Amino acid sequence: MTGHTAHPTLPPSSSSTSPESSVAIGSSDSSTSSPYDLAGLHVEEAGDSGPVLLCLHGIGSSSAAFAPQLATLSRYVRVVAWDAPGYAKSADPAGPFTLDDFADTAAALIRQRGGRAHVLGVSWGGVIAVRLAARHPELVSSLIVADSSAGSGTDPAKAEAMRARADELAEAGSRAFAERRGPRLVSEAAPEALVQRVTDTMARSLRLPGYRYATESMAATDLRIADLAAVTAPTLVLCGDQDRVTGIEASQTLTADLHSSVYVIVKDAGHLANQEQPDAFDAWVLAHLRISAGIAEAG
């Protein structure tokens, strides 16, 4: 099994920029450059060959969510999983951060890792992934969007509830907040060890202001307006059949406006299908990558 390393992002070997300095990214157009200093971005990485698979976690998690993929998929691809800006071991953004900012930071990370990537996003990470593919199509070879939606901006009540989460975190603290919300992220039949791991990851990962920026980015977004139709990358959409957070219907609506997509239901999985049923989940991801990236049957 391939081991993995954890470290702040480093500049590409061809650059003379030091890890402590800001990394110049994107074009001169301010709409496609990130205000975030990649030197403060923490990533987990595994694998030393093949294309890059960039993994973007959900709104209540961190790179720890992709432990199964770091262990298994790294035999075939280079797996890179971030702690989003303002989460877990990544530095806080200098100011308010929008969905475009999260997407542009992911784009900067892809450029730093070679210029193109397959992108796997879970829940909120899937929303970021779609925005990334719409804004930076030249960087995204394919998409895998898991247990995700078009954003909370599709409904005023959902948007209001999403914004209220940040105040709930502030009032309750991360541990109590995680103990309330963590168990719903997996199915009712999930083993207690997984429930505890999901809850602990949430408690360790969330803080303000990062979580407030994330909830606002979801509340302000409706990907149906323009993003989905703008995505040109082939897309695999997955959802756990027992997802109590997004639900099958909301995730399936993503495929209506995507030009090239396949929809898969993962049996016996809740909202975190990649963690609850990693073997089935990874098998679908590998099948997708074999078609879109031409990777070999054996790593």
Main sheet? 8 strands, mixed
Query: How many strands appear in the DSSP assignment?
Result: 8
CATH class of the domain at 32-151 and 222-292: Alpha Beta
Distance between the termini: 10 Å
Can you give a write-up of this model?
- This protein starts with a strand and ends in a 7-residue tail after the last helix.
- The longest helix has 17 residues, at 156-172.
- It contains eleven helices and eight strands.
- Helix 1 (67-72) links the parallel strand 3 (52-56) and strand 4.
- By secondary structure, the protein is of the alpha/beta class.
- The model is unreliable at 7-31 (pLDDT under 50).
- Strands 1-2-4-3-5-6-7-8 form an eight-stranded mixed sheet, sandwiched between helices.
- The chain has a domain at 32-151 and 222-292: Rossmann fold (3-Layer(aba) Sandwich), CATH 3.40.50.
- Helices cover 36% and strands 15% of the residues.
- Helix 2 packs across helix 3 (124-135), helix 4 packs across helix 5 and helix 5 runs antiparallel to helix 6 (192-205).
- The chain has helices spanning 67-72, 99-112, 124-135, 156-172, 174-181, 192-205, 210-219, 227-230, 248-252, 273-276, 278-292; strands spanning 4-8, 42-46, 52-56, 78-82, 117-122, 140-146, 235-240, 261-266.
Secondary-structure map:
Elements: E1 4-8, E2 42-46, E3 52-56, H1 67-72, E4 78-82, H2 99-112, E5 117-122, H3 124-135, E6 140-146, H4 156-172, H5 174-181, H6 192-205, H7 210-219, H8 227-230, E7 235-240, H9 248-252, E8 261-266, H10 273-276, H11 278-292
Parallel strand pairs: 3-4, 3-5, 5-6, 6-7, 7-8
Antiparallel strand pairs: 1-2, 2-4
